[in-house]
Amino acid sequence: MKKVEAIIRHFKLEDVKNSLAEQDIHGMTVSEVRGFGRQKGHSEMYRGTEYAIDFVPKVKLEIVCADETLQKVVDIVLKNAQTGNIGDGKIFITELHNAIRIRTGEMGEEAI
Which CA distances in Å does 36 have to 9, 57, 68, 88? Predict the structure, then answer.
């Protein structure tokens, strides 16, 4: 099993979610996060004064999937979250040793 963590722009969340659902990939956790990468934030104007925004708001998706589904998940996120501009985000993939469904006690891929 793999865990895919994707940091994406807010307005791309629905596109990614809908495309995953179309491919019968269900289940994700979504968190609102803030951070910065190479862009190091940005500046905004408010009432004629410029403010530096150090931490840019993003959305973090966490998707647990079977090894066989990993490439499909990554391709969907890449295709639907990409704008071609700086700040599109990142995808991180980690190995999961186990998952347990609390309600039933199912383990492994049956739990996801």
Answer: 12, 9, 32, 11
